[in-house]
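Limitations
The structure tokens in this dataset are predictions for the assembled complex, not deposited experimental models. Users should treat interface geometry with appropriate caution, especially where small molecules or nucleic acid strands are included. An illustrative entry is reproduced here so readers can see what is and is not provided.
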Amino acid sequence: MSSPSERLRELGLTLPPVAAPVAAYVPAVRTGNLVYTSGQLPFVAGELPGTGKVGDAITLDEAVEQARHATLNALAAAAEQAGGLDAITRVLKLTVFVASSPFFTEQPKVANGASLLLGEIFGAAGDHARSAVGVSALPLDAAVELELLVEVG
Amino acid sequence: MSSPSERLRELGLTLPPVAAPVAAYVPAVRTGNLVYTSGQLPFVAGELPGTGKVGDAITLDEAVEQARHATLNALAAAAEQAGGLDAITRVLKLTVFVASSPFFTEQPKVANGASLLLGEIFGAAGDHARSAVGVSALPLDAAVELELLVEVG
Amino acid sequence: MSSPSERLRELGLTLPPVAAPVAAYVPAVRTGNLVYTSGQLPFVAGELPGTGKVGDAITLDEAVEQARHATLNALAAAAEQAGGLDAITRVLKLTVFVASSPFFTEQPKVANGASLLLGEIFGAAGDHARSAVGVSALPLDAAVELELLVEVG
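Predicted assembly:
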């Protein structure tokens, strides 16, 4: 059994640096053995790969890719509080907000971008409860925002 | 005092089977004495009773009914992790997402469909914190999606 | 070091009375040392200061002010379960739903109204994880709804 950080490396992925806190909020908090992340946008090296609503300016495939980037950002935030990626013993809950045109109803396919990546990294410990909803607009006109609740050993 | 499962029977209701997991997510997870469900749609025997936005293709009454169905699905998912419906000692938090036309602002009335049913089944142990919001679109064009956080004895 | 209730007084603010429960839900619940609030609207003395979508009928400045009012209502609800404001030892998570026109993407600035107030009242213990999203409609056509998760000593 390889560790989550080994699997991440095998996938050719790295955790990005955690974005600096803005205003009076922080990327993640820990209480007991739970870590809650803030809502994460799909920043890649400080830039959003695309903006707009899914089903309109953003395609399903682009949204899936954004969900993967946002997941890496969420894991980076959680890992910082947990004491490293391998200190995360389980993924409990994923909430995915998809900026959606009223006609776009494939939010689960977008969220699968996040869920499948969590499975690849954590195996069975990545099995999580999930909600995926379509919202009217997201910060900076991002297409995806997601938050994680994880358990720490 | 009758048990939650007795009250469910007295109401003429049964818990539906739990839908099979899709992708790398599961219907509910347990950590300590908490169970988080995934967002539940109002499936009845594998079918959505109606699709579209509330205040547009879906009426308030239809949405209330959908909230009741989604609640039964959420309880089924939670009960499976808890070890049965009667192992749920308290309902803590309900989050209700209502696919809403911009002019529909009676999300609390839709959410009452869920809240009142939880009260009927759990009595005072069903008193929960709740958020109800209107979103632009939901998976499969469902009118209601909701998630539960419950406490296990 | 002044206490949260002293800082609230220094800011010239008071916690409003907690609104009476409606249907089978309550303003906040406690489990272990966590308190979850219901979604709070920006009621001031029982009235919403304005209604409509931000970026349309409601300006950014008005929405920031509404976020502050909703925060006071959330703290009142949490304090009642915690045994007073000063029994809240940490703010863990803030979720802010902003009723948004599809073109309004400054949800973080609206949420800062809540985050900064939490920082003013709790200092470093107010550092929280946060999600801010734009939704299509909120109860009673409110512009802002928010919920808090806090830790009790």
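Some entries come with short summary sentences. For this one: The mean pLDDT of chain B is 95.
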